[in-house]
Amino acid sequence: MEHQREVTMRLMLDEETARALHEATRAPGTTSEPVPVRGLLKVNEAAEWLNLPRRSIYYLMQSGALDYIVIGRSRRLPMAGLEAFVRERADLPEGDPRRHVKLGNSE
């Protein structure tokens, strides 16, 4: 029972944090709704959450930088994996080359 309460509280905090982040980073004049916080996101939802194009999400999945699962013909990305991806890079020092992720042929 205690574990269930912790998970519920964590999900509430994550949703609150996601909404605050969305509000803080939303371009002026846009009215898009925040991506719902769930266990698994579709590729387009993950792209919106990371503010990247879908092709970049597919590249990061293919390169192993983002974890995903396959359900039928669909790919789903765990929200915890996206959060870890951002957190791991944000925690690195400013000049650390691992902080920057190369996408495709970009330099």
Report on the structure:
- It is a single chain.
- By secondary structure, the protein is mostly helical.
- It has one domain (2-99).
- It has 4 helices and 3 strands; from the N terminus they run αβααββα.
- The chain has helices at 2-25, 43-50, 54-63, 79-90; strands at residues 40-42, 69-71, 74-78.
- A 3-stranded antiparallel beta sheet has the order 1-3-2.
- The N and C termini lie far apart (50 Å).
SSE topology:
Layout: H1 2-25, E1 40-42, H2 43-50, H3 54-63, E2 69-71, E3 74-78, H4 79-90
Antiparallel strand pairs: 1-3, 2-3
Helix pairs in contact: 2-3
The biggest beta sheet is recorded as:
3 strands, antiparallel
- Global outline: globular
Average of pLDDT: 77
What is the succession of H and E elements? HEHHEEH
Could you say how many structural domains there are in total? 1
Please give the alpha-carbon distance between the first and last residues.
50 Å
Per DSSP E runs of 2 or more residues, the count of β-strands stands at: 3
Fraction of residues in β-strands: 5-15%
- What assembly state would you assign to the polypeptide chains in this entry? single chain
Structural class, please?
Answer: mainly alpha
Low-confidence stretches: 1-13
Helical content class: 40-55%
Number of helical segments with 4 or more residues: 4
Instruction: Give me the side-by-side strand order of the main sheet.
Output: 1-3-2
Radius of gyration: 15 Å
